[in-house]
Amino acid sequence: MIATPADTPATLVAKAATTTIPIVFEIGGDPVRAGLVASFNQPGGNVTGITLMNLELAGKLLGLLHELLPQAARFAVLVNPNNSTIAEATITDARAAAMSIGRQIEVLTASSNREIDMAFASLGPKQVDALLVNNDPFFNSRRAHLVTLATYHRLPTIYPYREMVEAGGLMSYGANLPDLVRQTGVYSGRILKGERPADLPVLRATKFELVINVQTAKTFGLVVPPTLLARADEVIE
Question: What is the pTM of this model?
Answer without folding.
Answer: 0.84
